[in-house]
Design goal:
Strand order of the largest sheet: 1-2-10-7-8-9
Helix content: 40-55%
Shape: globular
Structural class: alpha/beta
Strand content: 5-15%
Largest sheet: 6 strands, mixed
Radius of gyration: 19 Å
Oligomer: single chain
Low-confidence stretches: 1-10
């Protein structure tokens, strides 16, 4: 081959690259927590793997979402910061935008479903955001958010379908690889695909042979169907305990990134999500929410085999109402793990 002949990178035309993830890491340095890694000999023994849990439930606002929100909002033009920001979210991105606004001096408006977990509503208000609630059975949140943005002159920062949000979320895996070295498998929860997109980009940079697998609720399997068919699928208001994964579909930004960088998307039942959540609470003493248990559930229920491999598992969040958690755990004791 001619030494002067350049071979093009097939991923170079995609909307987010590893350089964007690294730029996000620089912006988040000293602002986001460098979350710890947890291990469990019991998990290793039960799964026949060396499992390394990335504890984003201990991130600011209790979830990885802070990374993407802060990265995106910190890059806004001063005029945009002065007019304010709006988003729509069931909870974690809402809190992330509200806290980022507090830190950056940006007024925030959050569109939230009226059935969002009380702990997330209260926390979002506590960060100083204006909350606009809606009935998810009657209103499409994206339409309401865009209408309010247009009416008020606000900048919309969506929960996942945004280049800077994706890059910020990718710092989770970037940090994980810096902490633990090479991995054979990385398990990541999937809602709208922002976390999976960013983490897959970072994982493939550090370990090209690492198998990156998204995990989605079976009741909200739009991403899995989209990934395997190559055609974007949607689901309307899916009934799952994993409220952070009730997104209608992957986005224009995240869908091509997931297809390019992830290796597979698998699904788990709500019963398995609850059992994994209970296990992590009880045996590892870590408070995680149902969505935060998605990645762990695929390993603990055997959907993803251990096979003696080093496996990274992202515990994506820990914002759960304690009364709601108790109700879910009672299902295990009564043998009713379904919704």
């Amino acid at each position: 081959m001619d030494d002067n002949l350049m071979v093009s990178d097939p991923t170079s035309s995609l909307p987010v690259t590893y350089a964007d993830v690294r730029s996000g890491a620089e912006r988040l340095s000293g602002v986001a927590h460098r979350t710890p890694i947890a291990t469990s000999r019991t998990v290793d023994r039960q799964t026949d793997a060396q499992v390394l849990f990335k504890c984003e439930n201990l991130q600011r606002i209790g979830a990885f979402k802070f990374r993407g929100a802060y990265n995106a909002m910190s890059r806004l033009h001063p005029d945009q910061k002065g007019r304010g920001v709006i988003t729509y979210s069931s909870g974690n991105h809402a809190q992330a935008v509200a806290l980022s606004g507090q830190l950056l001096g940006i007024e925030t408006t959050i569109v939230m479903p009226d059935n969002a977990p009380r702990v997330k509503l209260d926390a979002t208000r506590g960060y100083g955001a204006e909350i606009v609630t809606y009935d998810p059975d009657e209103t499409v949140r994206e339409d309401l958010g865009q209408r309010l943005a247009d009416d008020r002159g606000l900048t919309l920062i969506p929960p996942y379908d945004h280049e800077d949000v994706v890059a910020g979320q990718g710092t989770v895996a970037d940090e994980l690889f810096e902490q633990v070295g090479l991995l054979d498998v990385l398990l990541v929860c999937v809602g709208g695909g922002g976390l999976l997109s960013g983490c897959a980009i970072a994982a493939k940079h550090h370990a090209p042979d690492c198998q990156v697998i998204g995990v989605e609720p079976a009741a909200a399997d739009d991403a899995a169907r989209s990934f395997h068919s190559g055609t974007l699928h949607s689901v309307h208001n899916p009934d799952t305990v994993a409220d952070g994964a009730r997104t209608p579909h992957l986005g224009d930004v995240t869908f091509p990134l997931v297809r390019a960088h992830a290796d597979d998307i698998v699904t788990v039942s709500d019963a398995d999500i609850i059992r994994a959540m209970h296990f992590v609470w009880q045996r590892m003493k870590l408070v995680i929410e149902p969505t935060g248990a998605l990645a762990a559930s695929a390993l603990l229920n055997g959907t993803v085999a251990g096979d003696g491999r080093r496996i990274g598992v992202i515990l994506s969040g820990g914002n759960v109402d304690l009364q709601r958690a108790a109700e879910l755990f009672r299902r295990i004791r009564t043998g009713n793990g379904t919704t």
